[in-house]
Request: fold
Amino acid sequence: MTPLLTLAVLAVSGCSSSFQGSSREELPTRLPAAPEQVLPASAQQGVTEQTPIAELADSAWLDATADTTDIPRRVLAAYAGASLRVAQTYPECRLGWNTIAGIGAVETLHGTYRGASTDGDGQVTPKIFGPALDGSEGVMAIEDSDGGQLDDDTQWDRAVGPLQFIPSTWDYIGQDGNADGKRDPHQIDDAALTTAVYLCQGQRDTSTDEGWQRGVLAYNRSVVYANQVAHHAETYRQVAPPSAGTSPTSTSTSP
Reply:
C-alpha cells in the first residue's frame, strides 16, 4: 500500500494524523467488528518487569512472522513485546500484537514512510513528522505545546514518530519500552508500548467490538481509519504462525 502525500483522515482525539486513506468511492460507513486478538509466542527465559519489550517475544516466532507479514523484524519485536507487556499490566484489555501492527501499518507503514527505517536500537530515522496541525483544510488547529522539542515545529503541533503521537498526548502517556530511562516517540519500543497502553485505557476489553472500536477511535476518530486498521490486523493474524497457549483472553504468555 502506498502512503498518501496529503492528510487523509484526522485524529480529533489526541494521537495520530494518518498518512493513508481509501478512495472516496470506497469509503466505508460502518465500524468494523473487532479482529480476533492474538499474542505472540513468549521468550519466557529471564523475563522480568524491567526487561525491554523487544526481548519479550520468542525469537523463532519473530523470524517466521516477519517473513510472512513483511513487517521489519525489529519493528515486529516492539509490537509483539508491547502486547505481551500489557497482557501482564492490563490483563482485562486482551490486546493482540496484530492490532498494534495494524495501527503501525496505517500510520507510517511500520516506520518506513518516505524512506525511514528502524535500526537495531529501535531508533527510527529520519524522524517522521505529520503535517502541521495549523487549521488548514482537513486538519485541526493545535498550537505548539512542546516548544518544538518533539516535532521540530515551534508554531504548530505535529504528530510524531512511527506511531504518530501528538506531543501533548505523548507528554501524559508516553512509555519507556526499551528501559533506557527515556520516553522517546521516535523510538519504536517506546512508541509501541505507548500505543498499547493508550488503547487499554479506561478498562477497555479490545476483544469485544465495543472495546476495540473505542480504543481505535480514541487513537483516530475516523470510520475509514478503523476499517483500515481492522483489515491489517486481521490479515496479520491470518498469515502469522500460530502461537499456542497465548490467547489474550488469558493472562498467560506461555508459548
